[in-house]
Prior knowledge:
With about 150 residues, this protein is of the alpha+beta class. It folds into two domains: about 35 residues; about 100 residues. About 45% of the residues lie in helices and about 20% in strands. The chain has a three-stranded antiparallel β-sheet, with no helix packed on it. Strands 5-4-6 form a three-stranded mixed β-sheet. A hairpin with a 5-residue loop joins strand 2 and strand 3. The N and C termini lie far apart (about 50 Å). The relative contact order is 0.11.
Amino acid sequence: MKCPHCGYQESKVVDSRHSEDGLSIRRRRECLSCQKRFTTYETVESLPIIVVKRDNSRQSFDRNKIMNGMLRACEKRPVSTQDLEKAVNEIEALVQNSLEREITTEFIGEQVMEKLKALDEVAYVRFASVYRQFKDIHSFMQELNKILEEK
């Protein structure tokens, strides 16, 4: 592993532990040249997933887009970044574990809404209003009424 401080190629592992989600291993390393420490993460290499958008264009799956959308929906809400990271990890695992190599944005959007509904209803409504592209206040109210009926 190349040292990010001096570029030396050799380092030793000082500490290893599993991440909270169990999907990666966190390793603390020490450069054998400059003795500075740095952290690396080891994850399983996965097959590329292609996302099919509403206009039938295709692009590579990007978990950062899911995280950014959820962060925007949760702006100024009492939702921790740790909870969002856990939700994104669960969505990514679901996508990776599916037998499909192509997944639709509709599937991903529904998963995001399910996770947001459990975390924060206001964030859920914010995301749903953009994702479902409500045309008027009536369709928006229908979504709100669904939430109220579930309680």
